[in-house]
Structure formats: C-alpha cells, structure tokens
Amino acid sequence: MTKRLWFVFATILGCQTGKQRQDLPILPAIDHHTYAHPEEAVITHLDLDLVVDFNKQLLNGTATYRIKTDSAAQFLILDVNGLQIDSVTLIFQESNQPATFILGEPKPYLGAPLTINLDVKHPEKVKIYYKTTPGAQALQWLNPKQTYGKNLPFLFTQGQAVLTRSWIPIQDSPGIRFTYNATLKVPSELMAVMSATNPQKKSADGVYGFTMEQPIPAYLMAMAVGDLSFSPISDRCGVYAEPGMLEAAAFEMAEIEKMVQTTEDLYGPYQWGRYDLIVLPPSFPFGGMENPRLTFATPTIIAGDRSLTSLVAHELAHSWSGNLVTNATWEDFWINEGHTVYLERRIMEALYGKEYADMLALLGYQDLENTIADLGDTSTDTHLKLALTGRDPDDGMNDIAYEKGALLLRSLEEEVGRDRFDRFLKKYFEDFIFKSISTEQWERYVENHLLDSLKIEFNLKNWLYQPGLPTDHAIIRSTKFKEVDVRLREFVRIGRLDRSSTRNWTSHEWIHFIRHLPTDLHASFYEKLDTVFQFSNSGNAEILAAWLELSIKSKYLLDHNKNRLEQFLFEVGRRKFLLPYILHY
Ligand code: BES
Ligand code: ZN
C-alpha cells in the first residue's frame, strides 16, 4: 500500500466513533525522511564493493541489493544524496539485464529518490554502479595533518540521521533493516574497519572483507579507514586507534568487558558478537556513535583517568536500546536516546555506585532544564514525540529526547518499583528484538505490559505528547552535589576553596561547581581557581568545555582564555561543544 493510501486508511479509522482508542490497531509509522516505499519493494541484504580513493576523495563501486517485493510492485525506490549513479543492473537467476532508472530532483537534506524500474518478472537482486561526490555529507576526508600521526590520511563516515544516502544509495529509514557483506579496497598502508566483523591487522594488499549478520538500519552503516592498530581487552572486546594513541586508548577502555557483562546481567545477552571501540581523530562530530560491533568515539574521551567512561556505557547501551529496538522514525528519536541514557546511568550505578550515577543524572537534569528554558516550556519541540515533517531530523536531536526521555523512564521505575521495571525492560528488548517501534506502539506496550495490571495511574500521554515537564516527575537528588554547593557558597563569599575539601572530587563535581560559578566575580577569584586547579589545562574535555563556556560569559576570563578557547574550537569537532545550547547533540 502506498503512503498516501495508508494516510487515508488512518484518517478513516481515526474518525470512527464509539471505539476506544485502545481497540484500534496501531498503524505502521510513516517515515517522512525517506523516499522508499518498503511495502512495495524493500531491501533485505546489501553486498557493497567499494574502492576508497584518497586522491580523488571519492568512493567508487557497486551496491547490490537482495529485495523483497509485493507482487504488483513496479519500482524499487532508494534514497540518494549527491551520488553519481552510473548504471543499474537487474539480476535474475540465469541472466542480467540493464534497468531503466530516474534520479529525481534533490531536496535539502533528503536528497533525491532513485526510482528503479523492476521488470514484470521481478529480479532477485538489483546492482547499482555509482560514485560519491565531493560534498558527500557522511564522509570526512582528513589530510595527514588532521590525524594524530600526521603522516597518513584518514576517512570516517557518520550516518545518523539521514546521511548514509550520501555514500550508499539505500532505503535510509530506521524502520528498514538489512544484513550486509562488504569489500573495501584501500591504500595498502591503511586499515579499513566497519560496523561489521573486522580485521585486527593490516592486509598486504589493502583489501578487506566484512560481514554483518544481524539486520541493521541504514543509519548504522559505518566505515573508517586510516593508520589503525588494534589492542585486545578481552576475548570479545578491544580498541582501535592510531598507533601513537593506542596505549592511552587501551588504558582508558580497560573496563569495557566489565561494562558489557554488567549490561548483560541487567538486560539480557549482548547480541552482536564482538564489542570493539575505535578512537577517531578530533574532528569526529560526536562524543560517540553506536555503530554495531564497533563504537566510533571522539579522542576527547581519553582523559587519562577513565573519568569519561559513561560515554562508553552510553554507546554500549545502544547495543540494546537503539540497535536491537530502534525508533521507527526520527520523530520517535527519544525511544533510542531516552532508553539509552536511562541504561547508561543504570550501568554506571551498577559499576560505581548510586552516588556516582546520581551526579550524572543531576547534570543531565540541569541540561534538560536549560533546554526547556531555551525552547520555551510550551514549545512543541519539547514533546517527546516530535513533529519533523518538512524539517531536518537533526532539528529534533537535543536534550529533550535524551533527558526528558530518561526522566520518563526513571519516573516509571519509581512508580512501579525497580525489580518490576527491570523485568519489564528485559522483556521489551526480547519482544522487539531487531524491530523498530513508534512512540504510539511504545505507549500501548507500556500500558499493556506494565501499567494496566498494576492499576496505576500514570499520565503517559502527558509525557509523550505535551510540552515541558509533568509536575510529578521523579526528583533527582545528589548528596555529593549538596557538598559542592556548600563549598561553592563559601568560595563566592570569601574566595576560599582548599584542596583538602576537593581532593576526592570526580570530574562531575567539578563540572557542577564550574556550571554554578557566578559570571561577575572579581578577576582574582577566577585567576586563583585556574592557577590552583588548572581548568584551562584540564585533560577532561567536559571540565575544559564548562570552563571555556564560563569564559565566554565572564569578561575577565574571556580576555584571559581567548587563545585556549580558539584552540579548542579549532581542534575539537564534537557537536555538543560547538553548537549553541539547544542543539547540543
Ligand atoms: N547516536 C548518538 C549520536 C548522534 C545523535 C548522531 C544524533 C547523529 C544524530 C550517540 O549515541 C550520542 O548520543 N552521543 C553523545 C554522547 C552521549 C554520552 C550522550 C554525544 O555525541 O555527545
Ligand atoms: Zn546516544
């Protein structure tokens, strides 16, 4: 059925009277950010064969799809953004034949539909010969200077949300899953890795083969090519980085295996085989990206003291929330990130205790309050279920999804009790394994599997479809931050903060302290802080960023820290540190 027909069908159903909403079927979610019509022809497997050409800065090769078609289907429609499509072949069991195809008019961020004419006798596979073009948004080609080693070039991809279509012609919707095999040919001094089975050594000829056996959505397609080396951490975990960074990266990530086990204890088996992590050059635009089997990470997680490992817990948690159970459309993005932030904090609590996790939760709550204040507490962009038709999905990727989502889950947990909530979530991951789910389906599932049997009144609709925060949300408290507040008040009053009282502070206490420093203190106060505690030289990017953000607001600090600020902004590509507040992610 076409999208338009679904819409008519939905409208008719919606108009029926006398029926409880409970009884109505929940219709498949419509993804407004794809041109695909999966109900007619959908991809089920991809064979990707690409040459990575660093001289021309392009990828050149083929994408071959196994497809599933409705008997009446005439077309296979793929999403394409700025690709050069050279030809398309239909593959039948005994023979091949050229296909006719049309590349439509491109639109901003959506790109264009590639409509391939399927023969009346449907082909088994469709093969597309193509090249990427220089503006491809998913591809970052780095010259040697932008790497740690300064010697060899580097390439990485970033697919989420709708960028994969700029390096692979594909059905780029989180609701469409496929398995893949890939062959990459790269310069022989470099190694290639993907969101798949990976090599641990360079090959002599620069050719690498990959397999992803579990079905994944297009935004999780990923590749990195560079002067990479590998360090094992356990039988199933390890770290990739440029050789000069490998030791520091391995030290920082030493607890990965323990994290995987902790998450398995809470939410069931890790379903992806290996869990590795790659530390990328500093221009990587995110803290981390949950590419399956291989998390991509910013080098700013290497603080030297494992103080930023909650970021690893976050990306690992996506191996359940997001990669097993995925948002059906980008309007349901909170389903990915809200569950992941909740899981991240549970993992941190299991490993480092409640006080530690409470600090993380309270910093998150502060972010949420700021985001709601920035957007306005009546803004529809503060709904968990977003309205993104006609908009770039990136518009919806802020702390509402992350922190309002996590707070909803924490509030539910407090309402029904932790044991029951843990059992519920484990079952949720089992029931929706390798599926995509809309907010409406999630709502129905929570009612049926959690709330109804307990006869608990919990205003889910308010949380999901109303702005701001429900008044009865869980209250986050941190005893550690209360102590910081005492020190902070004393410092603001008399300029004293001795090392003995701060000796055991984690980076979270420091961030809380810096965030709450007034911006109009006497210059000598800031000077003293920076001399004693060396914030401007902090190896922890979160502390440094908080200090530099304060520097923008405080005249004295700006004069003092201008160079450091400039250097940070030039060097670090992480979106959270570069974009204005509401676009944090
Ligand atoms: N999947 C996101 C990154 C992302 C979000 C990419 C939206 C593209 C569009 C990832 O899991 C993430 O949330 N990263 C955070 C770190 C985390 C600890 C909150 C980041 O990069 O800051
Ligand atoms: Zn995330």
Enumerate the spans where pLDDT stays under 50 for 5 or more consecutive residues. Answer: 1-21
Largest sheet: 7 strands, mixed
Overall residue-averaged pLDDT value = 93
- Count every beta strand, where a strand is a DSSP E run of 2 or more residues: 21
Radius of gyration: 25 Å
Percent of residues in helices: 25-40%
* Number of domain modules: 5
What would you call the structural class? Answer: alpha+beta
Q: Give the bound compounds.
A: ligand BES, zinc ion
CATH topology of the largest domain: Immunoglobulin-like
User: What distance separates the N and C termini?
Assistant: 35 Å
The CATH architecture of the largest domain can be named as Sandwich
CATH class bucket of the largest domain = Mainly Beta
Q: What's the assembly state of these chains? A: single chain
Shape: globular
What can you tell me about this protein's structure?
The chain is an alpha+beta fold and 585 residues long. It folds into 5 domains: 1-30, no CATH class; 34-224, Immunoglobulin-like (Sandwich), CATH 2.60.40; 228-313, Zincin-like (2-Layer Sandwich), CATH 3.30.2010; 320-465, Orthogonal Bundle (Neutral Protease, domain 2); 479-584, Serine Threonine Protein Phosphatase 5, Tetratricopeptide repeat (Alpha Horseshoe), CATH 1.25.40.320. Helices cover 36% and strands 21% of the residues. It is built from 17 helices and 21 strands. The chain has helices at residues 3-15, 246-252, 256-267, 310-317, 333-352, 354-375, 399-416, 418-431, 439-454, 460-465, 479-494, 499-502, 507-515, 523-533, 541-553, 555-571, 575-578; strands at 41-53, 58-69, 75-80, 84-91, 96-98, 101-103, 112-117, 125-131, 139-142, 154-157, 177-185, 191-194, 207-217, 223-226, 229-232, 237-241, 275-279, 288-289, 294-297, 325-327, 435-437. Strands 5-4-8-2-1-11-13 form a 7-stranded mixed β-sheet, with no helix packed on it. A hairpin with a 4-residue loop joins strand 18 (288-289) and strand 19 (294-297). Residues 1-21 have low confidence and may be disordered. Ligand BES is lined by residues 160-161, 286-290, 311, 314-315, 318, 337, 397, 576, 585. Residues 314, 318, 337, 340 line the site of zinc ion (ZN).
